[in-house]
Design a protein that fits this description.
This protein is 36% helix and 24% strand. β2 and β3 form a beta hairpin. The protein is globular.
Length: 104
């Protein structure tokens, strides 16, 4: 990561076996797209909140976020060729972000 983990706002893609997984990191909070143990709309809503600059409903990292981040960073360091990090500050909206993701 090019930023401190507790300040980073990034979308991480993991490509493996022809399938993409998406992880959203927002200032120490971690959201996994389609993760069955998280509320259904958390990933999409958090991404929309970021770009629409609305006040996020979820604040401050929790213990589960810290544990997930440790696991993620460890896995990423061992599988760097399968991951790509997109820093949200480099995009004006969700469409621009997904266009870049789909072009890579």
């Amino acid at each position: 990561m090019a930023e401190p983990i507790n300040l980073a706002n990034a979308l991480i893609t993991i490509s493996e076996n022809g399938k993409n997984e998406y992880i959203l990191l927002l200032e120490g909070k971690l959201f996994i797209k389609d993760y069955p143990l998280d509320p259904k709309q958390t990933f999409e809503q958090s991404l929309e909140d970021y770009f629409e600059t609305t006040i996020p409903l979820v604040k401050n990292a929790e213990e589960k976020d810290l544990d997930r981040i440790k696991i993620l960073l460890n896995w990423m360091s061992n599988n760097i060729e399968k991951t790509k990090t997109y820093y949200l500050k480099n995009y004006n909206n969700i469409t621009e972000l997904y266009t870049d993701i789909n072009s890579n």
